[in-house]
Amino acid sequence: MKSMLIAGCITAAGLSACNTHTTPKAANTFGEDVAFLKQHLQNVIVLKHPDSQSQVVVTGDYQARVMTSTTGGDAGNSYGWINYNLVASHQLNKHINAFGGEERFWLGPEGGQYGLYFPPGKPFDFDNWQTPPLIDTVHYQMVAQSDTSVSYEQSGVLQNYQGSSFPVKINRTVSLLGNEQISSKLGFALPGGINGVAYETSNTVTNTGDSSWQPETGLLSIWLLGMFRPSDQTAIVAPFKGLPNANGYITDDYFGKIAAKNLQVKDSLLLFRADGKNRGKLGLSPVIAKPGAGSIDLEHNTVTVLLYEIVPDGRYVNSKWEIQKEPYKGDAVNCYNDGPIADGSQMGPFYEVESSSAAQPLKPGESMSYRQTTMHFQGDRTAIQALAKELWQLSLDDVQHFLNNK
Fold first, then answer.
1. pLDDT value of residue 26
2. pLDDT at residue 343 greater than cutoff 90
3. DSSP code string of 310-375
4. For 141-167, what is the mean pLDDT?
5. CA distance 402 to 406
6. Residue 375: band (very low, low, confident or very high) from pLDDT cuts 50, 70, 90
7. Among residues 108, 218, 249, 316, which one has the fewest Cβ atoms lying within 10 Å of its Cβ?
8. Chain centroid offset of residue 159 CA
9. DSSP notation for 163-205
């Protein structure tokens, strides 16, 4: 069976592990989100940049998670989706605690013979599925902080489906970037009339055990997942290499085939509706995936873009809930649109853009690192059009036409 995980509603055979969530109001500001988090959590850090109104809020309570960000200070739009009900409950759920947040640290694979989310020998079904506490409920210790950066670490032991143990140390740093750094990352100067916020996370996993990690007994990957606010005027954008057989490297049926009205695959660009009303997930193989997946929100004139490393011939773990023929032929990039499940419940609404590192066989004491940069830009329609052209050679009229096709 295809993987049934998506950060939030998890279903199998009609079962649900999600809290029905009601956003406190349609347009809560960054400052309101920060106030809420400080009311309910003990370790909330706000990073601010001196040359702009860009801010990011991070919490060690949720594994050094970036909860949300803004381009406009406390009164600005807040880009991350936060599960207000779960955070305010001060309770922990079975299977997963989907607190939200626009970038969280996870490890893969999920399912399969090397999966980290199932006890050894148990069936790949929902009752046995459990997010490891190290990446779900464990508090990460802050080890360094400045106005624009904060670092955390935590250690623990993971076990995979084969029974292999993985003693690890996790180090994670979140750094808020300035305007010059943003332009350097993009490779071009931002169009006039754009306000931006960007942060880079540096994520390192160290093998602290006394045995080497081997492909035959399982490897780990760093998995970064972002949950964002949807709208009827939002489309996920994912560039890919326009190879003749590119469609063979796109998986669009994780939760059933995505309807044609919700997914457009053309040339070397993919558009995926992000309205939070139609549940679907897709994946891009490292053979065709390119850096720069993100989204365009025509209602608020915002662009989101994620930059990450892809190793075309790397080992990418397979997270499907089955014993796999090709456990290292997984996705490098995933996108998800939330929506009601079979029983009508829904945790969101939200949408996700995710990336994963290649897996590496680490010797004792060796480390692997993975970086990702998340950027949000807001401006008038002309400025956003110029930015979309630079990033993806994409016309906003084409995005509008796609979104109007209902």
1. 59
2. no
3. --TTS-B----SS--S-TTB--SEEEEE----TTS--S---EEEEEEPPP--PPTT-EEEEEEEEE
4. 97
5. 8
6. very high
7. 249
8. 23
9. --EEEEEEEEEEEE--HHHHHHHHTSPPPTTEEEEEEEEEEEE
**With left for phi above 0 and alpha for psi between -120 and 50, is residue 100 left, alpha or beta?**
left
Q: Provide the sign of the torsion angle of the four alpha carbons 258, 259, 261, 267, taken in this order.
A: positive
Distance from CA of residue 122 to its chain's centroid? 28
The pLDDT tens digits of the residues spanning 84-136 come to: 999 999 999 999 999 999 999 999 999 999 999 999 999 999 899 999 999 99
315 C-beta neighbours (distance < 10 Å), count:
19
Q: Do 68 and 80 meet the contact criterion of CB atoms below 8 Å apart? A: yes
Quote the DSSP letter at residue 246: G
Question: Could you tell me the two tokens for 74?
Answer: 């406390």
Task: Identify whether the C-beta of residue 184 lies closer than 8 Å to the C-beta of residue 354.
Answer: no
- Structural domains in the chain, CATH included, are 11-404 (2.70.98.10)
d(CA 134, CA 29): 31
